[in-house]
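Re: your question from the hallway

Yes, I did run it. Sequences:
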Amino acid sequence: MSDIEIDLTLPLAPFTLAVQWSTDERALGVFGASGAGKTSFLETLAGLRPRASGRLRIHGRTWFDSASGFRLPPEERGVGYVPQDGLLFPHRDVLGNVLTGARRARQGRGVRIDPERVLDLLGLTGRGGSAVADLSGGERQRVALARALCAGPELLLLDEPLGGLDLPLRRRILPYLLRVEREFGVPSIVVTHDAAEVSLLSREAIVLEAGRVAARGRPSDLFLGRDMLGRRGAGAHTNILRGRVVAVAHGTARLDAGSGIHVSAVAPPGLCLGDDAAVLVGAEELIVAVESPHGLSAQNVVPGVVRELIPSAEGGGSVAVTVDVACAREPLVAALTPEAAARLSLASGRAIFLVWKTHACRALAAGPATLKETA
Amino acid sequence: MTSSVLLPLLLSLKVASITTLLIVPLGALAGLLLARRRFTGRSAVETLLALPLVLPPTAVGYLLLRLLARDGPFGVKNLRFDPDLLLTWKGAVLASAVMSLPLVARTARVAFEEVDPRLETMARTLGLSPLRTFFEITLPLARRGLLAAALLGFARALGEFGATVIVAGNIPGRTQTLALAIFSDIQSGDDRRALWLVGLTVALAFAVVYAVEALLRRRTAPA
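Structure:
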């Protein structure tokens, strides 16, 4: 019997949501385009969709079983729900919001977390007395997360936790989400339409398409599969490299990615020497060179071997070139035009170099939890 | 002079206050049901609640009179005790309660409708029971609108005339409220007292409506 057992059906207007998912993994992701049923799925887990049928067992406790007519009300389910728009209570200050679920945290079976510690960890120190209206978008999102964490959750449900935030803000909040998992060890389900977020925040994910589970597996396997890469188009892919910070200066950081390979990336404020970090670089930022390049201003030159070429499903688009590199278990993906791929006569097994600028990639502080993916 | 002005004023305040205390919980409950629940007969309840707004107050008063008459459905014969409402200040309370309830219920309904129901479901996921959700989330968020509803109900009760005069009569010192006293003074040609009373009523109404407007404005102001 798995730790998390989901077998749910929910009739929605255009289709029926049907998800079967049993897993012992604790960091879960749900990937899908908007309108695929992701939010409905989370709301069903939280007990907010009365028309659902099926079975739901979380950590050995039945939350829902329509066959026997059993339904645990939302307040007894022990979820930490963080909706897309935060939904903070406007009549309470930050601390008032965070403590809303404190009663259940004391009595429930979920993890018990000190509110002060959560506020500190989420960069909200001293903001307890602030009015909700005075918060920035990023702060609201973090308060909503803090509130969910302090309600003694057995399962965190994060709905597009970075959705609706602009890019700089996303970069600042993502590390907090990574830390939550490492610090508190609460199992979580993250829903997002961003593949990089799924890859960073989960170790097992499903792909939802029109309410059905189209694929399931490790995020790297999901997004690097021939099918997915071809369908999404190479340009949509974000590569993730992991390493340890060995130098920080002038807003950039140098990471040791292993196997003697170093990567330079834009560093967020607060990234420190010795931190574990992830480097995100879009497939379209990668340049492929068939000979060792020299005299370049670009700092990152990583040797690799072409694994395969995957044309995008939409004709005339780009070609995804997957490249095995020594410093990562998964191949990196470069998006090239079909012309460029043909001109370089790229083929499986060919030794090449991947080149990209420091400013084309950004580093994120990432906990060891996301690093020990293979453990 | 002062006592003859004071008496109707005090009686009006007493009747309007007690009316407000009675109809605010009732109106809030009706408003909450209409704002949050879909039930059969919903339209009927809505229409019934709107009736006193459109019917002539005298018609409502007459209906109450028939209901409360000795041999009426709520008369002493049927109830086997005397509700003692006709021609008493309590009758004035009943009449103004019936006339003011629709206003309170409607304002309360809007107040509850303006509370995002997703905030309530959010509270549920945080472990709050439906009852605690109501008292910790819904009620505080609707409080301005509910206060406005109470003030509007109070103001409406203060000005009630048509139904009151039929149910409670116009007995000086016992059931003669401000509105009734003004009517009597005009009838009897006591312009001086009528003017005094009208002035008082205008001042009271102004204060109440001003407070309501301020409440509603602050509620809808952008956060």
